[in-house]
Amino acid sequence: MKIRTLVINAVIASLYVVVTSLLAFMSFGAIQFRVAEMLNHLAVFNKKYIIGIVGGVLISNLFFSTMVVYDLVFGVAHSLLSLLIMSGITRKITNVWIKMSINTLCFTLGSGLIAWELYLALQLPFWFSYFTVAIGELVVMGIGMPIMIYIDKKVHFNKQIEG
Question: Could you list the residue ranges that cross the membrane (predicted)?
């Protein structure tokens, strides 16, 4: 892997951690709006961003979660699996809006992993947690779609990571 790719992914992971730490009060628990999740859309532009995104989730959960072990397993798995599924489903799709919509759906549906975590760790009702976490993902990633497309027009995400 190129040094450039590693550095860019380190920046993405750092950005994810900073945003999550600043908004930690609403980034964890049964009702969460983790704003940094809009960075998941970077993988739509280039799958090489998956490393930075998942790294950001791992570091954020390690340092800011009250359920560290659970969040390291379930939170990281949720992100990695959702990104890999989205990458597989969209590999032949070129329309960015469609890819982002599929990405949003993968994360929203995959929120069941987080609901399971909340059930195991805190005995919270599974379906309530699934609903609230899924709504948070849907809202954040839905709002993130036009934002990420706007930023891409200025910085060209794919060009940045490919050099």
Answer: 6-28, 49-66, 102-122, 128-151
Whole-prediction pTM: 0.95
Ordered structural domains, the chain, with CATH = 3-162 (1.10.1760)
CA distance linking residue 13 with residue 90, whole number of Å = 23
Residues 54, 16: Cα–Cα separation, whole Å? 9
What's the residue count for the chain?
163
Q: Are 9 and 25 in contact (CB under 8 A)?
A: no
Q: Residues 74-119: pLDDT tens digits?
A: 999 999 999 999 999 999 999 999 999 999 999 999 999 999 999 9
- Of 109, 158, 144, residue with least CA distance to 37: 144
